[in-house]
Write a structure and sequence with these properties.
Layout (H helix, E strand, L loop, with lengths): L1 E5 L4 H14 L5 E5 L12 H16 L2
Parallel strand pairs: 1-2
């Protein structure tokens, strides 16, 4: 079983991720893991640059 790691404990984001993977890969099973990751941007990012910066920061945190 493949793991999907979500850099948020937000239940809405978890459910959206589950739905996206279920629709995209209907014949596969996944294990979902959430964790709190500080994005380094505002809680509600504004614009593509801030959104990208937050995603990049979370991606880099998983490498630590």
């Amino acid at each position: 079983m493949k793991k999907v790691i979500i850099g948020s404990n937000n239940p809405v984001k978890l459910e959206a991720t589950k739905e996206a993977f279920t629709v995209s890969f209907p014949d596969q099973l996944f294990e979902y893991k959430t964790y709190s990751a500080d994005s380094g941007v505002s809680e509600q990012p504004f614009g593509i640059e801030e959104t990208r910066a937050g995603a990049k920061n979370r991606w880099e945190l998983r490498l630590l």
